[in-house]
Amino acid sequence: MARASSKKPRDLPSIDPMPARVDPCLATLVNKPPKGPDWAYEVKWDGYRLAVHIEPGRVRILTRGGYDWTERFPTIVDDARRLAVKTAILDGEAVVLDEHGRSDFGMLQRALGRLPSAIEAGAIVFLSFDLLYLDGRDLRRLPLRERRRLLEPLVAGREGAVRLSEEVQADGDEFFRVACAHGLEGIIAKHVEKPYRSGRGEWWQKITCKRRDSFVVVGFEPSTVPGHLGRLLLAARQGGDLAYVGGCGTGWSHDLSRELRNLLESIATKSPAVNLRRKNAVFTEPVLVAEVEYRAWTDDGKLRHAAFKGIRPREDEATVFEIPVADQPKNN
Fold first, then answer.
1. Higher model confidence: residue 153 or residue 297?
2. Which of 150, 147, 192 is nearest to 168 (CA)?
3. Catalytic residue, candidates 7, 44, 206, 302
4. Average pLDDT over residues 290-305
5. Residue 44 designated active-site
6. What is the pTM of this model?
7. 331: which residues sit within 8 A by CB, 6+ positions away?
8. C-beta atoms surrounding 135 within 10 Å
């Protein structure tokens, strides 16, 4: 009689179920880079935060807020299928790079087709900076240095739509100075010994050359030039409502000004989304989000020296700036 195997179920290789979605780890804004051997630095990319889920027979692309945007990034999907993995979740940023290798949010918007453009969707690349799951193993419990060690052989040196976001070995202060001098948005510092934790915490830190956030477009003021845009009216989330935070009147070209004006007129409404009375203002449905660069906040909670950087649908509003209830933004 054949002898039964003495191998117990617990001796079999364990397989972690693949998460349907992972809430992303978010960086905390700080004034200067942390120091010490436990910190690694990366460029702060100016694009869309995405998670690429690779499974047998399909690839899914999810936004920071959990929306399925797979159909918007066909070249990333096609290239992800070529990676030497069975199952994986890659964390990273979708960007369009300019001729100097800098990410350009406006170019990304045009490649996605929101506004008229000569930029093709194939120009979009996914820069991966973390690996959360690989071939049946949940990697989130591992320290960052181990997750990067597993990620780099998969995507380093590739020229396709899926690439590696390089770590930079440098003094944090010097790297930040050079990043700002080259027109980058800023840098990210990550603690190499920490596991992957969803939500915002001190283990990932961002240091920006200027403040930059997303705000809901609630209206506009026409320009004195017929058919053009004078000023965008913006709002942040506060509790379950929208709170007016001022506007911006710079950052667009002559042609873009006209395109934005046409776009906003198509969603004009007589019911403002914020409690605001302003002569000549045209209010819009709160369905678009503007990326805005600014220096600080005024004492009464308005944006100071704001400049337009791009526009997108509000459907994934996880990135919209939120003011704590009964509070106002603080200067950094």
1. 153
2. 192
3. 44
4. 86
5. yes
6. 0.73
7. 296, 297
8. 13
